[in-house]
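Standup notes
- DV: blocked on the single-chain target, sequence here:
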Amino acid sequence: MNASFCPPDGVIEFLEGYQKFLVFGHVEPDADCVASQLVLSSFFRRRGKEVMIFSEGPFDRPEIIAYEQRFRKRIEDSNLKGDPAALILDCSTADRIGSMEKRIQGLPVLVVDHHAAGEDFGDVRWVDPRAPSVTFLIQHLIEAYLDRPTPGEAGLLLFGLARDTGFFRHLVENSGFVFEAVSRLVDIGASPRETYRMIHSGWELAKAKLLALSLQRVESELKGKVLITYQSLEDLHSLGSKAARGSDEVYRILQAVRGVEVVAFIQEEERDRCSVGLRSNGEYDVGTLARSMGGGGHTLAAGYTVAGSVPVVHSQLLAALKHLVKS
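- DV (later): unblocked, structure below
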């Protein structure tokens, strides 16, 4: 274990102070969020505690669909009996857990996150922006107990870490501590090959068609430094389900274009609401841009969700990117 990523004072004491936990992640979960919840719940069940995991979803990312049935989508009155504590993972703001936020008001709350932006909520907080993922922090939490993940837990931890780092391509210099943690997971039984398969195989044909459509729509802006594309709800309805959509492949291809510094991908989530993903090749800090829009992330990979149609969001985004590039 890397001592610099040990849980801060108060975290272990909080966890040892309760016998029952309700574990939450953010709406529109990703692999890091899902894996963090699954591993933390597994670990504390091994320690004899009662744990329930919750997520409103939607589980519309292909690599996490198989885990949906393991999550509760609403809180029953019986779930709140027994003096539980709430563990909130990968959420920079309380409302990121969705409508269930109101149901847990008054419960003691521990927050674990790796996003610097957000609000100061929760009774105990472990927020470390140096960490590449929340799964990375969960691994160090288990190790702080002088324990280690099971082979199944190790596989999930590697899955979340690899997905959140773009299979490590978002990491920069002096990131050796990440690979030291990965080596421990692999020695336990996590498989990089299986992890890559989980993330990048099993596509629906519709996903390939959506990828092609997104690439055809690319617009080059700011003298070729910025590429912007989008997917609409109509695309999903005509070519496939939300489970067929994907953005990582779009980023990987477009970031390889000569002269490109920033790739932006707008995805229409519902009428008049879009998510925006941003990737940087290193010269520009897209994390700062995302935080200015109410989102979060890191220097090279960030995003936000905003009200508005695709054309409106595109116009706002381009104005922000012009400011970013100019500054």
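- Follow-up: Residues 310-326 form the longest helix (17 residues).
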